[in-house]
Amino acid sequence: MKRRHFFSGAATAVAAASVGRAALAALPEIPQHGSADTAVPPSPPTGRPFRPVVTLNGWSLPWRMNAGVKEFHLVAEPVVREFAPGFVVNLWGYNGQSPGPTIEVVEGDRVRIFVTNRLPEHTSVHWHGQRLPNGMDGVSGLNQPAIPAGKTFVYEFTARRPGTFMYHPHADEMTQMAMGLMGLWITHPRLDAHGRHPLIAPADRDYAFLLNAFAVEAGTRTPRVNEMTDFNIWAWNSRVFPGIDPLVARRGERVRVRVGNLTMTNHPIHIHGHEFEVTGTDGGAVPPGARWPEVTTDIAVGQMRQIEFVADEPGDWAVHCHKSHHTMGAMGHDVPTMIGVDHRGLVAKIQKIVPDYMVMGERGMADMGAMEMPLPENTLPMMTGTGPYGPLEMGGMFSVLKVREHLAAGDWRDSGDYVQPPGTQAWEWRGAAADLPPAPVAPTAPAASTASRAGAATVRKPGPGGTGHAH
Amino acid sequence: MNAPRSATLCALTACLLLAGCASVSPDGLRGQVQALADGRTAGVAAPALPSSDPTARQQADAAVAQWLAQPLQADAAVRIALWRNPGLQARLAALGVADAQRVQALTLPNPTLTLGRFRSGHEREIERTLGLGLIDLVTLPWRTRWQGQQMEQATLDAAQDVVRLAFDTRRAWLRAVAAEQVAATQERMHEAADAGAELARRMARVGNWSRLQQAREQALWTDSAAQLARARLAAATEREQLSRLMGLWGADAHYTLPDRLPDLPVEPEASEGIEARALRERLDVRAARLELDRVANTEGFAGVAPWAGDIGLAYTRNTTTEQDTGHADVKRGWEVELAVPLFDWGGAARSQARGRTLQSAAQLQDVALRARAEARTAWLGYRTAYDLARQQRDAVVPLRRFISEETTLRYNGMLASVWQMLAEARASSQAVADALQAQRDFWLAEADLQRALAGTSGNSSSGIASAALPGAAAGRAANPEPQGH
Ligand SMILES: [Cu+2]
Question: How many angstroms is it from A302 CA to the middle of ligand 1?
Fold first, then answer.
């Protein structure tokens, strides 16, 4: 997870699998990607030059030039995706992974995409946000017959508008998207003679990911495709924290982050330590006069947002969805609140019938981040991920922006934990209590003597050591 | 004068000899009952029957005390029941009474001596007659045989009661042990429900739960309390039943039971040859066969008895003395009294006896048929109980346990609540209780099978347990009484 593979490396293999070579003689080869690590693409070997994006825990699809046309080959197929170490899910994806590889082209490129369907049912591909001929829009039944299982269809159009786009099926899409069939499409701008674009600034670091959500019941490995609201796996590019790679930048670099939302709810994406501007949507680049500073941008369902900022504050900064349940792993949404409930005298009784029983939630949920308890198979803890100062108590849509003073331009590796300069970290007050400024009391607060009247919650405070579970 | 005298003596001697053959069994036929019941007492090898000998009784009491001092095993329970069950003791005593009655019936009546003194004119007449009813003597060989057969039959009946008591005790032991275990399981479940209800109360108190949610947990608690009460009652009742069968009361009844039933056998018994075995070994089949023999034997006698009637034999010696002269005249002679078969030639009695023979034959057939059917049914019940117990033990309990463990894992991950976990744990405990009962049912079915194969029908087994036993002699009202005396 920590090491990033380069595009030319071993992670990309040429598959000679089930579609017969003879049948595909005229087709581009089918690149496959075997791991969920981030693969940083090289500069484009053919076609117009561009600076590739880095797909978080993903990769970009190689192409071949054929008489001036950029040819790609997507294969829709069942895949097994590792969401985090030890947690794998059966999904549908493209070319070995879900989401599929990022397709990167340059404004004005003529693009031909071969789509081979190795799914058990028909499919199609809709090129979300693109200007293209109606018959290439990929809505099966409306624009084209669906691609039957085992067949290959060809889409061809010109990438007319620069921006951040997505591709996904528009045939049985509820099922197919619930199974993870989706990918990113980046159309890089065509630059003028000076290497500039009026609305799109060059970026030193260009990250892209899709927001996706799955309903994977604890102990299972295939999503429940009929779920509409009660998802429990909130992912970026079908990865969950701590399985999501960090976004690294050298101090002062211009960082672009492109986020697309293919879940069924909105996600307020929040970055710590910096302000950013939304410089583009799936409608295109935002005119500079329309941009305003943000630290959170809400990405509605089916939308894309392209945000940019200068990474000028060194440190490890959280980047996450601000819906707090979306930074959790699998959890029971109907588990009652146990905070403040006195368990004294009951644990031994319960242990008589459930020997492994331990009290949880009595003081809050943070125990989950610290305790290592056996869980159902193929299930991540609700909270997980550990930093230099302990459990992060996070899972799901969470990553870290790592801004460092010194970082080579092409260095995308995780730069490790940030060490704060002395005196720049919150510290424990060790002085006398009397020296503390008095805590102000709200004028309507009840007097201290009535605070424990019947019906009022009395939270039992954790004792020293904080492991008071064996009552 | 010598010849008749010696003849008389001979006849008397013969009578005495015949009568002397029938002597009372010193142990009241207990040894025979025990021999018949051997191998049929619920898997217990050679249990002893209560003895009338004080030394043996003391030894038995010591052994009982020793068995009661440790967790009571099934074998010991059966042995104690055979020693101490008052019903069985009454039954065996009655058998001894019947034996004595038999001997008495075979004893010849004393001869009658008639003395007369008459005066007529000058004569004084003294008459001495020694009379003997010959019918008893004539029928003695028949009667000896019938009485013997009847005692054999009574012994067989008693042995069947021994067998029933042994199996009833084993069954009661199984039920008592299982009931105690089930109660223990229910107790654990109730404690968990108790914890759940208390936790719910505390949840509601601090405002995390509504009264409704609390009430649902409270309802589970009341359910489990009721279940526990029933389980405890069942355990006490089953134990009482066992104590009663073992004839224990007071301090003796404070024994402890083992905390587990015997394991299921690895392989169940095969069904081959079970009907033949039942026909060969069952005591009731044997009794029915004996009955048929006995009734068939009475046929010959039944034809003779009516006209043979009361044959009377008398020897008379009359002395007539002339008073004047003192001359005495002695008159001796034999007198035989015979019925004249003018009206009853014994035909009705013969057909009655024939009818009884047919009846007994049909009864034998009926008993054999029942033995076969019971053997088959018992085996089917045994096999089904085995399969159910295996399934409960090897499939249901591990499944429930797995579900409970998985729910605990989900609780660990805060995917499930403590109440869901408790509910599954309760279901798991219930499966254990069900498995205990299935295991018990198997052993009960096994006892039924063994009894059906080697012992007798279980139909009248309640008779012995109720201690209200009819006398052994009165137990065979359907048998024809030997006629003619
Ligand atoms: Cu979110």
Answer: 13
